[in-house]
Amino acid sequence: MPFQFSDLLAAIALFFVLEGMIPFLNPAGMKRALEKLLTLGDRELRIAGLGSMLVGIAILFIVR
Description:
The protein is mostly helical. It has 3 helices and no strands.
């Protein structure tokens, strides 16, 4: 199955929709989460980012 540019655009659009849901539905919770994020060290943020990437890759393998 060849790569379609429209697939990439659809994925980016879905990312923006999901990113916007939290501040839209719970702005106070989003502020608290960002405040907590500022207190984390670089190591913890890197581990969280790695975990997020691995989950995303796993989901892609399952879906595709």
